[in-house]
Amino acid sequence: MDDARFPQLRSPAADEERLPPPASFVEQANVTDESIRREFEQNWPACWKRAATLLDWSTPYDRVLDTDDGYTWFDGGSLNAAYNCVDRHLEAGRKNQAAIKWEGKLGETRTYTYQDLSREVNALAAALRDLGVEADDVVTVYMPMIPELPITMLACARIGAVHSVVFAGFSGDALATRMENSNSEYLLTCDGYYRRGTAYDLKSKADNACLAVPQSVEQVVVDRLGDDRSLGDDYHDYGDLVADHEGADVDPVARDADDDLFLIYTSGTTGQPKAVRHTTGGYLSHVAWTSHAVLDLEPDDTHWCSADVGWITGHSYIVYGPLALGATTVMYEGTPDHPERDRLWEIVERNAVDVFYTAPTAIRAFMKWGSEHPDSHDLSSLRLLGTVGEPIDETAWRWYYEHIGDEECPIVDTWWQTETGGVLLSTLPGVDPMRPGAAGPALPGVEADVVDATGKSVDPGESGSLVVTRPWPGMAASLCEGADPGADSPVTHGTGGWTYRTGDSARVDRDGYIHLLGREGDVINVAGHRLGTTELESAIVGVDGVAEAAVVGGDHDLKGTEVYAYVSPRKNVSATEPLRERVREAVADAIGPFATPDTVVFTPDLPKTRSGKVMRRYLERITNGEELSDTSALRNPEIVGELESIVEDIS
Ligand code: WTA
């Protein structure tokens, strides 16, 4: 393994510490039986039955896992996701329980009971049908954090349409790329949204996207800003559609277990965002099971995952997991520090949140703002804390444990990806001891390994590539393919068996706990958002006057990683402030403002191998002030010293 690729190993002493889960938690936990791992080990496909029993099936499945041609989970079974997330809870006598509690800007709140949710989902489902939406059609949803977003997802699921939610922070161009790629002829969006008290326009971005795609698009618009603008004949008003279909009762469409539930775009190693498809039976079983076993959710719990529904975390653990179990899910609009830095703790207290799930980048910000903010609230309703999205360092882990959990809540550090659908690595909070800084072992039924470049397992303590070596129900449809997956597939069926390469580097400790070290390749992870370096670079080289660009991640105290763009201007073009601005704008236009490079470094040349390949790893080391001992592989070693001094001047 190339050492330059991996951060320094931490001292082995850090591996020794294990904190037992608090006894008060274990007493009430959903999963407490230590034999669960052994049980899954003995017959791993059959054990996933447990996950499927958390759902109601329209047709029972024949086999848990069919391997005749690729992998089909719960083959022969059919079910409807909206029925599982809404109707069956009404039938269970819980129609007046809150399903969604929404916290909007400046203290505005809305609560939807399961009955309310059922009414609006049915009305919208009927309206979508009237617009012509049929099973398997792709409906794009471009909305901020408002209740209409999960309602639209469930309305699509009810009629068997496939939703494609695009994060509202993406630009119109990024929306158009995704709509064109999925040939989506329906777009549900809204006029705008509020962030830090300011209204942002969304509709004109949606309009631009619709103009840019070849297909014609039916647009439905939610009036969020409340300015009652007339939409004109080209648009459907969401509120009017729902009112016109009030009282509708739409039969949930039974979907085959491997029919698509949704698709979501993510950054891969190519310049184009890639569509990840998730199935109805496998995905829903996986997120319901992990919500039960890892997040320990029960129907009378209030769960708050502070992610955005526009990313996979929100799909799985704001919408589908908690609602499948009939719990109350909280969603909030805005940011954690507006109007005050105690906003989240105020929401936890007022809603008596039981389980709180957030990202390390948020925890680092809370730490910086100071413990007086959580300390001024009663957080005693909390029972379990979770993190996801990036590695959590021990300091942030301890702060979270002490100041938010009062040392009484276990922390689950959950590792997973858009492609995995739900959590794959985590401690079971009522069973396993916690180890600050390590995600934990693979969940029961999941098998993971850390391997070297030849695919051989590395020794404990050594770093390598994280691979998953058995299929799991939440796996994306593209990973389910048969023996001959495409050349760029991360799945291989070699002599060592089935292997999914995750693209993360990791090391495993003596107890089998996996410590994540970061992304391996051409993807960087900024504040928990995945960005493809090629996507960013192609936006930058599109700027007039730019010859070449390379993007890398630099260490950042709060965001974990920040975006550094190394840009070399064309001959006779000078490196000026306006050029720098154009570079930043190009990225904001192509992807979205959240992806804008924090630092743009102009350089006459990029470090390249003799064959002309840009050495991003060298740039990464330069960015982070690390020494480069050997530059002999470079065609232009002199550029290194020059760049080192430019970067030193900036920081
Ligand atoms: C990273 C988000 C360390 C990892 C659910 C992965 C993590 C990428 C963790 C997926 C964790 C996620 N510890 N790293 N607990 N969880 N990651 O697709 O690099 O947006 O490959 O899915 O986030 O990001 P994605």
TrEMBL record:
- In Swiss-Prot or TrEMBL terms, this protein is called Acetate--CoA ligase
Top-level taxonomy = Archaea, Methanobacteriati, Methanobacteriota, Stenosarchaea group, Halobacteria
Q: Give the organism, scientific name.
A: Halospeciosus flavus
Q: Which Pfam families match?
A: ACAS_N, AMP-binding, AMP-binding_C
Q: What is its EC number?
A: 6.2.1.1
Protein family: Belongs to the ATP-dependent AMP-binding enzyme family.
Cite the entry's keywords alphabetically: ATP-binding, Ligase, Nucleotide-binding
PROSITE patterns named in the record: AMP_BINDING
Enzyme class, broadest EC rank: ligase
Record-linked InterPro entries: Ac_CoA_lig, ACAS_N, AMP-bd_C, AMP-bd_C_sf, AMP-binding_CS, AMP-dep_synth/lig_dom, ANL_N_sf
| Keyword set includes DNA damage | no
- GO MF, one example: ATP binding
Q: Which residues form the AMP-dependent synthetase/ligase domain?
A: 94-472
Which domain of life, per UniProt? Archaea
Is Ligase included in the keywords of this UniProt record? Answer: yes
User: Acetyl-coenzyme A synthetase N-terminal domain spans which residues?
Assistant: 36-85
Q: Which Gene3D superfamilies match?
A: 3.30.300.30, N-terminal domain of ligase-like (3.40.50.12780)
Q: Which residues form the AMP-binding enzyme C-terminal domain?
A: 535-613
Q: Which example biological process does GO assign this protein? A: acetyl-CoA biosynthetic process from acetate
Region of interest called Disordered, as start-end residue ranges on this chain: 1-21
| Signal sequence residues | none
